[in-house]
Amino acid sequence: MHEIKMNRKKDKGFESPRKSVIGFVELTIFPTVVNLNRIKLNSKQCRIYRVRVNDLEAPFIYNDPTLEVCHHESKQRNLNYFSSAYTAAVSAVDPDAGHGELVIKVPSELWKQGDEMNVLKVYIEFSLDQPKGGLHFVVPDVEGSMAERGAHVFSFGYQNSTRFWFPCVDSYSELCTWKLEFTVDASMVAVSCGDLVETVYTHDMRKKTFHYVLPIPTAASNISLSVGPFEILVDPYMHEVTHFCLPQLLPLLKHSMSYLHEIFEFYEEILTCRYPYSCFKTVFVDEAYVQVSSYASMSIFSTNLLHSAMIIDQTPLTRQCLAQALAQQFFGCFISRMSWADEWVLKGISGYIYGLYLKKTFGVNQYRHWIKEELDKMVEYELKMGGVLLHPTFGGGKDKDNPTPHLHFSIKHPHTLSWKYYKMFQCKAHLVMRLIENRISMEFMLQVFNKLLSLASTASSQKYQSHMWSQMLVSTHSFLKSISNVSGKDIGPLIKQWVDQSAVVKFFGSFAFNRKRNVLELEIRQDYTSSGTQKYVGPIKVTVQELDGSFNHTLQIEENSLKHDIPCHSKSRRNKKKKIPLMNGEEVDMDLSAMDADSPLLWIRIDPDMSILRKVEFEQADFMWQYQLRYERDVVAQEESILALEKFPTPASRLALTDILEQDQCFYKVRQGACFCLAKIANSMMSTWTGPPAMKSLFTRMFCCKSCPNIVKTNNFISFQSYFLQKTMPVAMAQLRDIQNLCPKDVLNFILDLIKYNDNRKNKFSDNYYRAELIDALTNSLTPAISISNEVRTVDNLNGDVRLILEEITRSLNMEKLLPSYRNTITVSCLRAIRMLQKNGHIPSDPSLFKSYAEYGHFVDVRVAALEAVVDYTRVDRSSVELQWLLNMVQNDPAHYIRHKILSMLGKNPPFTKAAESPLCNEALVDQLWKLMNSGTSHDWRLRCDAVNLYYTLFGLTRPSCLPLPELGLVLNLKEKKAVLNPTIKPEQGPDTTQMTGNTMGVHIPVMGFTSSEDEIDMESPHDSQAFIHHHLNILERPSTPGQHPAKHPAVIILVHNWAVLSLPVTPLPSFSKESTSSSKHSGDHHHHHHHHEHKKKKKKKHKHKHKHKHESKDKERDSHTFSNSPASGRSVRSPSMSD
Amino acid sequence: MKSLMSNSARSGCGKATSSSAENYQLARRRTLQVVVSSLLTECGFESAEKATVESLTEMIQSYISEVGRCAKAYCEHTARITPTLSDAVVTLNEMGFNVDTLPGYAKRSQRMVITAPPVTNAPVIPKALIAGQKRTHPSHIPSHFPEFPDPHTYIKTPTFREPVSDYQVVREKAASQRRDVERALTRFMAKTGETQSLFKDDVTAFPLIAERPSSIPYLSALLPSELELQTLEETDSSEQDDQTDSENTPVNNLNDDPGADKENSVLPAGGVVPLVKVSEENMIDNPYLRPVKKPKVRRKK
């Protein structure tokens, strides 16, 4: 059992709240090996006051190698070096490998009891002051008490980040039960995992203590906390579900949550399993790290998901977020993962059942559209960046091959992944689950899930000693075994292709019809040489729509066969007036005049069910695409044909698209897509286009008054399909261009009239999104100004049309100040429009407006839009001032999401790239970015990876070219396994050679003068060792790192007794592996920290913190034997050779 | 005096119809003034302020008018139309004037003779506006009865214009009205507050109201504005479903000031309990709705 007590301090009356936490943790450990004399825990940024083991003071060492990845003095600036060092640093504290930042020496008095395997109770007192990660304090700067100000705090993090706010074994595979106590101000509510047992006032009645008990074994990484003056809503349908939101938002919460019970019902029904926890809590917080994060029995959401009944667009999005959160409650929180390599199973299952929910709630069309969207997104990413590997295997040091040499980061740890990669990883995971479903049927699939859940819930009610808890962890192996047990099918090849291997398949298809043989000669080629692609061998489904009906054919893709002959069924040439049967059994009349008289083929589709992770480029005649668009009922086929028709700007295409637009049975997203395609076609057909501008008459017919066609009807958004179409059409129309490449005057006036006559008074829904899209339409209509030399843009030479546009934008933006729209959608659109006006040279390019909107204190969407404009300005104007301003914000902004967003936007729209020269690219910038990723972002894994990404985009993998040659001609390049001359000359190399293996921490031990008994040490890889030696030396050589910035890094080492400074050689632990740290330098270090600590302590006393901790027993039970599959278990029994 | 005369004469020439009545009155008024002046002289005043004379004139005119009015009333009371001497005497008596003294006063020696007012035409009664044809009496009404008044006095005569019901114009009007209001309002706000500008050369063109960071930006961005709420109520008031409201009254400690009054902070939490008890069958057992416990005495080891 794991117990945490925390006193969260937020002082009233002080101008600046302290934002601090004081707490203690008590872990109960069941040693499984005899000589447990050293315990390793994860802890970051916590200031640890004392550690006691079974009431004996225990010495400890705190060393966080990820604080500063590469040595401060190092002149190394190449990313390869950084990546390997970072991976090594993360590995060095990887809890799955038994490592940790905090090493506690078990007092020797307790050693000899080893035989009896006595329970050890580890008690740690710690505090957190102004934490930079892990916990986020939101304290609005207004008058009043903390509660009146809506001040709140919540835990956050990317993957296992619990170590940021209390010392723990921060792994998803270390389960234990929990008792949590939080003492907070009486006006606050503390929401955490498990059941709230009671709430008790403190003796002075100023504070309350919330007592939580979580009897279900849960990993520390799934523990969360949020505290604030929340308004409480008990779900009217399910009383064990409680919702929390910030003050004043209760009406929105009521509406937004009114749907949650249906999601519950859905999941419980398909999984035939009750929700595993006895309660569920949803908390909506401001400045959320991500929109949705799930923890054991609670989920933390962004407050911006809340909406009123008037809002259309946000409603499905919010429901989707809820559904995702709930799916992760089952798979992710209740069932946890064995190791990082098994993450894909959990993400896959939760994503898959979320997909089932989508299908049921939003319909099959929406579901298939979503699958296609996800597939396209993922395929695009893999083709661009190289493959995404779901189940990386790191062959225990023997396999030196990096599974992903194409990436500039290591995928060995979640904390080294780029955020985008992780998103694509999740995407691929659920797509692969869908492939498995295709293979074994949904029924079996759900049975497998049910089996996993029922095993887990049986295990969860058992005592720790029963060694059953490992059933609550899922691994790739156990998952696959379940599948084969349940279905009896072998999905090995599928797993091998998509899970154990990265990359996707790229097909090119074309065909010819052989009239004599009445055979369709289909040619399917593959590109498996370019990056991100793999070769596919196996079945592929082809659907051929002929005059006589639709036929499925399964072809075998083999090594060398490209051509496939498919016999056609339709013998008859053309049977006039006969209805044509479609795949779904429907029979329709078609005008067949467009088709080739000799061929019975209407259209052909390759892999229509998306049962391969692929990209298909298929060639067929334009009329076939048109038939496909009109008559194929699958939305995916319709969307594919819309995309294809862009290349066929003919009146027939135009007609097909217009017909689709008018057909209200057609899925609205297809119709939206048709709008944009029609605009493109119209532009290509500019010279032959007849009639009014595309879509204008259609829009008039659908949405304008009968009596006065220039005036739009008053808004009535009851029909959502029409609403979405009404929103989209003007935006697409604005993309039309005339012969001068300007937006036709007609169209512009039309849009201006839409804005003018917009009347929402009779509408029950808000029109904010519609108005925002009308502004977007104005933005789309903009074309570059005719520039006469490089004159300064002034009001006087403003083009007349632009003046009208600008007037609308000004008015809308100003009105937003008086009557703000939901999520400030209109401000967002206006900011984009202004940037576009600047970019096109209509108004002077100036970032100051955007910078003011980007400041903290605006709604997050507005900030992001403004920052996007600043990023764009930085690139276009190559402004180093703005770049500095942005980077400054990355370091200092209170909102983590904004920091992340800036870096990812800079990565997407970089001020320069490694390919091009730029005045911005200079040594100072390199140093700055290097510092940012090296030490400036140690509090947020995601941000550090963002910084790495940006560095990669700007400078590539090798030493940035703008740097002067290193002073030493000879550089020890650890990646290259050798000393090389100036690495700037070296071409880029994948970081593969630097890949660390799971046991690497063992490698450095010999250097320290110890011998290691670990049999997995790979002494054959000298380069790896070197990297590690080097790295480790770095660690040792910077005694001052934590101490240097004590204010910034409160995670200092605190020693209770000076003698603990002694170096502590490794002793075996059950699941805590050894770490050897060395002596002399550390001792100095410790003194330093000790003093520092003393100083802080005094300060604390001044503030008169009184914490009455109730000491209760809590125990963290662990037994590595239980987890036979745990990576830690392999090393659990170690020889005591290195004990003191 | 002369100039006055000439003035009135001139004005009399100027305006034919209306001034004849004026002239008539002016002439008599002037006579009254002469009367007052002579009475003053008689009493021994050598001079008098014009205003005084004017006031006295006004008083005397009122007195005479009142005498006339009362006399007429008396005469009409007795169903006559022309007052007689006795009517006048009764009136004077009624007003507290001793009629017996009148002959003596009239014959006093120092009285001054006043010229009669100049002869002016009696004022012409202006013709009533004749609008339309007067109706003749219907047959059952004897002809001696008064004539019908002018038709305009009893016939509806609409004076407003037909309201514009053309949809297009209405929309047009509503749109431009709204736009004008918005523009005026935003211009006003821009003029009276800080602004940001898109142009450097002319900061007044397209003024943007300066953004102002808010401490709690999500509130204004998420909560519907009052205007929207109003619209919602108008369009759909039936949809409200507040059934759950009473059950879920949150433990709202927001307004507590724990520093000042600790006891108070207990109340809201406790306040929920009776509420829940009211609807016993709907009772929700949710740990967050339970009252906060008082600390136990010394639970420490």
Which features would summarize this protein structure in a list?
heterodimer, A: 1140 residues, alpha+beta, Immunoglobulin-like, Neutral Protease, domain 2, eight-stranded mixed β-sheet, five-stranded mixed β-sheet, 30 helices, 33 strands, disordered C terminus, B: 301 residues, mainly alpha, Histone, subunit A, two-stranded antiparallel ribbon, 9 helices, 2 strands, disordered N terminus, Transcription initiation factor TFIID subunit 8 (chain B), TAF8 (chain B), nucleus (chain B), transcription regulation (chain B), BTP (chain B)
Question: How would you describe this structure to a colleague?
Answer:
Chain B: Pfam families: Bromo_TP, TAF8_C. The complex is a heterodimer of chains A (1140) and B (301). Chain A is an alpha+beta fold. Among the domains of chain A are: 1-64 and 101-142 and 150-220, Immunoglobulin-like (Sandwich); 230-334, Neutral Protease Domain 2 (Neutral Protease, domain 2, Orthogonal Bundle); 340-394 and 407-455, no CATH class; 693-786 and 793-810. Chain A has an 8-stranded mixed sheet, with no helix packed on it. The model of chain A is unreliable at 7-16 and 968-1140 (pLDDT under 50). With 301 residues, chain B is mostly helical. Among the domains of chain B are: 21-106, Histone, subunit A, CATH 1.10.20.10; 128-237, no CATH class. Chain B is 48% helix and 1% strand. Chain B has a two-stranded antiparallel ribbon with strand order 1-2. In chain B, helix 2 crosses helix 3 and helix 3 packs across helix 4 (85-94).
What's a concise summary of this model?
The complex is a heterodimer of chains A (1140) and B (301). With 1140 residues, chain A is α+β, with helices and mostly antiparallel strands.
